[in-house]
Design goal:
Length: about 100
């Protein structure tokens, strides 16, 4: 349904971390009930992707240890997420979005 690649801000327990993101979203719908294109059809939207924290491994640990996670786009829209995987020795985190995608 959508994708975004570029700069974002990760907010973890109120602390902001500049990062680069590669994100995707898609809609889930009952194909048999809708002839509308996915962006116009009713249903749930899921999103996930990869973020690379500019602060590297230390920043990634801080984000992982946080209780609350938000992703803020350059235009100010935000979305919650959980960390689903981490690449050790790097600032790269795989995330799964919560709620509507912010992009």
């Amino acid at each position: 349904m959508g994708e975004y690649q570029g700069e974002v801000t990760v907010i973890a327990d109120g602390v902001e971390y500049p990062a680069t993101a590669d994100l995707r979203s898609w809609g889930e719908q009952d194909e048999a009930k809708s002839s509308l294109p996915p962006e116009e059809a009713p249903g749930l939207t899921d999103w996930n992707g990869k973020i690379d924290i500019d602060a590297g491994e230390d920043g990634a640990w801080n984000v992982m240890d946080a209780e609350a996670h938000r992703l803020r786009m350059p235009d100010g829209r935000t979305g919650g997420f959980v960390v689903s995987r981490r690449y050790f020795g790097t600032g790269i985190l795989l995330i799964t979005g919560s709620g509507d995608p912010p992009f």
